[in-house]
Amino acid sequence: MKKITVLISLTVMVVMVLTACGGNASKPKDVLAQIKSRGYVIVSTDPNYEPQSFLNTQGKRPSTTKCPSDTLTTAEMQGFDVDVAAEIGKRLGVETCYATPSWDMITAGSWADKWDVSVGSMTITNTRAKVLTFTVPYYYYYAVIAVKKDSGINTLADLSGKALCAASSTTYEDWLNGKLDLPAADVFAQPPANVTEVPLDTDQECAQSINAGRNDFVGYVTANTVVDANIAAGFPVVQLDGPVYRESLAAAIDKSSSLPIDSFVSELNTIITAMHSDGTLTNLSMNWYQVDMTQAP
Q1: What pTM does this model have?
Q2: 6: pLDDT strictly greater than 80
Q3: Contact (CB, 8 A) for 219 and 148
């Protein structure tokens, strides 16, 4: 009886060892290998950031998609960032899926492997670079201030003591609070004296709130592309003066990923550089912005 028990125990141990060895052998060696193995890349982006990225209410989820059920497909999203991400997926040879976590979760790092990369118009900053690895920039734009048409505000100085809206955990919020960590050459103006910030989740919420009649702030800080889209949509706002700073936008990868990211970052840099060289990024920019915003200032 004891011999049989020992034999069974040894057999179970052998099976466990073999299973463990097999498991290690099949485990992807890094993030890039994992993405290619499963056939899709999960990209985090904003579902309410037109024209960069926003929901396609007319889009229908394909029945054959590889995307997990808690993500969106390319058919369900649209915008410049969405098209850039879709092209990156195409060149990786996989399907692109979209996760839509809050912006502060994306910029904070420690993603717990819930998505692979951010392609969401993220500005490269020293603070973010502590927890995220950035690719080469894929385009550039300017931060501007939009104010209500009837506000009587014509200059930055007129904003002294007023309230402005900005999305939380953005460079726009950092600029208002005097915490912007960009190169001095990229900053054209300092925030108005005694300005008060009204934080919301996204830039577009600031614009949409003004359009809905909210009046506890007189304007908002955002990208020039967003203000252009707001004005084109008939929002009662105007852009104030010129840009206050310029931004270099890149894809970002979590440094705390459970798998190595170096080969993935390298592949993304190769793809984005190629998209610059072959005119793909220029064409996408012209399609969404009617101007080429992919050339370095």
Answers
A1: 0.82
A2: no
A3: yes
∠ at Cα 63 (61, 64), nearest 5°? 115
Q: Delineate the domains of the chain, giving CATH numbers in brackets.
A: 31-139+248-289 (3.40.190.10), 141-247 (3.40.190.10)
> Which two tokens mark 211?
């359009």
The answer to whether 121 and 50 have CB atoms below 8 angstroms apart is: no
Query: What secondary structure, in 3-state letters, does 67-88 show?
Result: CCCCCEEHHHEECHHHHHHHHH
Sheet holding 132-148, edge to edge: 72-73, 95-99, 40-44, 117-123, 237-254, 132-148, 219-223, 163-167, 196-200
Q: Which two tokens stand for residue 55?
A: 């929901």
Count of residues making up the chain? 297
* Contact (Cβ atoms closer than 8 angstroms) between residue 219 and residue 192: no
The C-alpha atoms of residue 208 and residue 83 are separated, in whole angstroms, by 24
Helix (H) or strand (E) holding 106: helix 103-108
**E strands in 129-281:** 132-148, 163-167, 196-200, 219-223, 237-254
Per DSSP, the chain holds a count of helices (H) and strands (E) of 9, 12
Secondary structure class of 133 (helix, strand, coil): strand
**How confident is the model over 190-230, as pLDDT tens digits?**
999 999 999 999 989 999 999 999 999 999 999 999 999 99
**CA-wise closest residue to 228 among 138, 136, 146:** 146
